[in-house]
Each structure stands twice: as structure tokens, then as C-alpha cells.
Amino acid sequence: MNYKIVSRYVILGILFFLPVTFLLFLYPATHHYTPLDIVKEKVLDLEGFDSDSKDKIVLQDHITVLGFLGDTPLQKKTTALNLKELVYDKFKGFKRFQIVILMPKGTEGVVKQLKSEISSYEDLRFWHFVFGSPSSIKHVYFSLQSDSDLDANLSSDYVFVVDKDLNQRGRLDDRTDRELEKNATKYGLSAYNCIEVAEIKNKMSDDLRILFTEYRQKRKGEFNSDTRRAGDLSGEDINK
């Protein structure tokens, strides 16, 4: 018997089956997670707003990242760029996903300039700027749960996640494991700061994946609101 050939096949078999076995252990975990919390119900839909496209833009039946860039949006270019590169580029292919930015009427011209600076000739068809009166913008903002107000220019560095049923999503308890061990005072997360890159890349990306997974499982009749959050949902095919 040629022991070198036998040894070679044994090693090849181990190299093949070990990763498969590892994935099989991980697979059940990707289907158990805590659904993203509802932090506020009945977010106002977009009545009285004009869009920068021919379509009527609404929040109902969409998974929306909602933002406010105010009278001087070029001063919020960093906010917009982070949102484009860290959120839009990652999720623009997902079903019913959109980014909607509420703008005061009269900013249409400067918005065109902002779009040209952040788009790099890429597809922005799932990113919408809508224009309304200051009172309309404030009414939508005040229908959201937020720890801060719009500034004097009607802008904010924070964005909000709104689901298909006009519920604002976030975290009712955003404490870390270490803070939980120390029984630290409970605090939540209702909006995501686009200036904080780590918050967008980690928390917001994870939360959006969880929300898309929830709707995917609802479509397939597999959703269970009592299941636990997985440590990693990156293997989910959310477009199914």
C-alpha cells in the first residue's frame, strides 16, 4: 500500500470536510436573533413633499433610512458621504430599501450640486431628496423618537430607520455586555450618528441586516419574534 497516497487523500479529506463541518455548526445560529426593536410607532408619512424624481416618494411599504440635511446641505457633506459609502452602497440592492432626505423648499439647486459631489456618477435611484415647508419637515421629525432637536437650519447628523409599517426601529437597550455585567443604567439607540463611522459601520449595518432578515422570514412564514439575536447575520441572503 502506498502510504504517501493514502496520507495525501486523508489530508485532502480533512481540508475539505473541516470547513463544511464548521459552517454546519454556524448555520443554525444565523436563523435565531432578536428582532430590531420598535422605538416609536406611527411615524408620519410624506404628505406635502415634492421629490427630485417623477415618482411619489412615501415611507409606507419601504425600509427607509430617513435624514435631514437642512438649508445648507453642502455643510453636511461629510454626513452625506458617510451615509452614501457606508449605508447606501451596501444596501442599495436590497428589496424595498431607500434613503430619503427631507429638505426645505428652495434648496433644489444646491441639492443637485451635493448629488454630483457624492454620487461619482453612480446610481442614486434609491436615494431620494424630497422638498417641503419647514413646518412639514418639523412635523415628520417630531413624529420620531430622538434625543436631540433639528438645528436652526433644519438639519441633523443623525438618521433614522423606519420600517414598512411606519415604525421607527432601533435598540431599546444598547448597553454592551460589560455594561450589562456591571448593571449600568439602561439606555437606548433611536438614531444613528453619521459622523461616527464606527456607529454606522457596526451598529447601523447590523441593525439593517436584522430588519431585512425579519422581513425575509415573514415572507417565507418563518418569522418568530421570540427568537434570539445571532452574533453574525452576514451569511443571510436577504434578497430571497
Structure write-up:
The structure is a single chain. The chain is α+β, with helices and mostly antiparallel strands and 240 residues long. The chain has a single domain (35-219), classed as 3-Layer(aba) Sandwich (Glutaredoxin). 37% of the residues lie in helices and 15% in strands. It contains 6 helices and 8 strands, in the order αβββαβαβαββαβα. Strands 1, 2, 3, 4, 5, 6, 7 and 8 form an 8-stranded mixed β-sheet that branches. Helix 3 links the parallel strand 4 and strand 5 (127-132). The longest helix is centred in the N-terminal third of the chain and has 24 residues, at 3-26. 29% of the residues are buried.
Q: Kindly, what is the distance between the CA atoms of the first and last residues, rounded to a whole number of angstroms?
A: 50 Å
* Low-pLDDT stretches: 22-32, 226-240
Class derived from helix and strand content: alpha+beta
How many DSSP H or I helices?
A: 6
Shape: globular
One letter per element, helices H and strands E, the order comes to: HEEEHEHEHEEHEH
List how many beta strands DSSP finds.
8
Give me a quick take on this structure.
Helices cover 37% and strands 15% of the residues. It has helices at residues 3-26, 77-91, 108-119, 134-142, 177-181, 197-219, and strands at 37-40, 50-51, 63-68, 97-104, 127-132, 158-162, 168-170, 192-193.
